[in-house]
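Before a colleague's protein record goes any further, I have to sign it off. What it holds is a sequence and that sequence's fold in token form. My question to you is simply how this chain folds and whether the tokens agree. Thanks in advance; the entry in question is below:
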Amino acid sequence: MKVLLLCLNAFEIMELSPFVDVMGWANDDFNCDIKVEICGFHQKISGTFGITIESNILIDHVDVNQYDALAIPGGFEEYGFYKEAYHEKTLNLIRSFHSLQKPIASVCVAAFPLAQSGILKNRKATTYHLRGGYKRKELENFGVDLGDEWLVVDENIITSSCPKTAPDVAFQLLEMLTSQEKCNQVKRAMGY
């Protein structure tokens, strides 16, 4: 199995790393054949706080049929997250995964490109909850049925409320790709 980890400009590091770690533990220690490939608009992807990573594949070269799930960390508006998050390439990629009913996992404000793509209309979802819940109100304007939970699963779509939830989202995605039993084994091994 392969997870496409879409890292958009200004992605948040804390929201990226749990996908790599959880799937890595599952692959290396629990015989789950899961690989993570980092995808970006450019070879070098600028994250928050001056951190840069390298992509394994550029968004222009992705064949959705080669992947079993899509994961998207959120990012910071002040660093330019929404420029790539709302780009038509991102929205089309999301729509392609959704049309095949493949799991799509998002952390925090990564719910916004999902909403912008149209896949959250009349679906239950959540997003960043602090600062008076202004991002939640914005998400609701996309026709989303706003959930109060930290993590919301609506069929194949996972959304969450803040960076703290990133490991929970990664574990939920692992469970969708394998089983609850396998997920619990990895959780215990990682101290959760």
Remarks:
- The first helix runs from residue 13 to 29.
- The helical segments are 13-29, 81-85, 88-99, 111-117, 134-140, 166-177, 180-189.
